[in-house]
Design brief:
It is built from ten helices and eleven strands. It is α+β, with helices and mostly antiparallel strands.
Length: about 500
Amino acid sequence: MLLQKDRSIRIVLAGAAVAFWSGAQVTAYAGATDRGPAAAKTEVGRLELQPAVGPTSPDNPELDAASSPPQQMTLDAAVQLGVKNATAISKADQSLRLSAAQLLQSYAQFLPNLTLSAVAGEAWGKSYQYTPKPALLNTANYGLTMQLSTNVNLFNGCADQAGVRAALERKDAATMTLARAKQQIAIDITQAYLQVILDQRLLDIARQSLGSSRHREELLREQTKLGVKDIGNLYTQQAQTATDETAVVSAGSRLQSDIMHLLQRLKVIGGVYTWLPPRLTEVAPFGEQTRADELVRQAMEQRQDLKAADAASRAADAAVTVAEAGYYPRLDIGFSLNDLTRRIQHQSLSGVDQGPFVQDPLSKQLQGHFNYTAALTLSWSPFDRGVTRLAVARAEVDAAGSRVDADDLHRQVLTEVKQALEDFRSASSRLATARRGVTAANKSFERIEARYGVGAATFLDVTTAQVVLAQAQSAQAQAQIDVHLQAQVLRHVVGAAE
């Protein structure tokens, strides 16, 4: 199975194998399966997974997945599909959209605001007037009040400039976080896809091993009837055939499980897919003589998550300046236009009726009752009960935490690059060793099988050689996949992955 920790592919060898992988394809139906393990041994050409859906209907043809021809799925197509459907990508994209809106809002702080208000109402009651002499005013009136005002800040402790810097850094961080999230999804899909390809190879080897054992069993059965071979050899071969059948069932079960895991990552709930093996690379992605310190330097320059962490740290530093603006005075300039209309219904002063009145209609009052105001406002809070001090303290703590996170990530990248380079070199060494092992095991099996045919070798010698060959072939299949995967992981940790 594939292990997330070191991104290497692990297999459990069950049973014996004779032949190399022949490149057979595996077809999978998306969804859960209700078939038993026997499906893996009765279906030789492909592995089918029944979709977890109800009865088909004309209104929902997707339910009948088995009736559709299989779609060919490549590694590149799987990566694109996984990136498109990934929840992490959707969240990162939404975060980017929010940061863009915040940036626009920070730029808008340099522009004057514009407010328009209108109030229509009726007023009545008594009020005490003290000019030109004390009197009690009783009135009832109605009208419309309109106001148009604008205000622009001239100085606020450089909070707006720092806010723009912080918003720019946050947007850059969100952009680079989205890019790195796509790279992470791509390497995760690649890992899951290669596990399916490895399972496919092991299943093919197990099936051919089973065919070889069945053929030998039939031969021994006829030889036993003729008295040429001892019946004990037949019993031993029957046990070996049963072991190979178990190996096929186990390999098929592992393949089903890993296909379902891959489909879950791709967020595919219906359809029929044929998984095509990719072209495996065995070449170091940055050259055979590439040094670790050179790859570390490239990673520091290319890793999107590093750039995002640095941008977030700079945004946090700018946020400290925004918080410190509360210590400084604020200077604003404003302008307002007011239009007041009133229609008096009755009015008395100290009990004496003041009517009748000669009044302009409201429509005429709207055209000429303007009042203009221009003001330069200076405001400052020498003591705000510690609000600014607390805001600055929080901003400084956040900035310190962002710097620590960025430093930790730099050290983590250093370790990841060195580990990935070592893993690739180790996988390349295992592949070279596995190829030598397959060559030797093939020669040994061919020689022992030929000697067994003329009675110069025992049945135990043949079965032992078969098991050794199966182990060598499985190790080679694993090493080939590992080399390709570790090459992609090395590109990923350096930041060169698309």
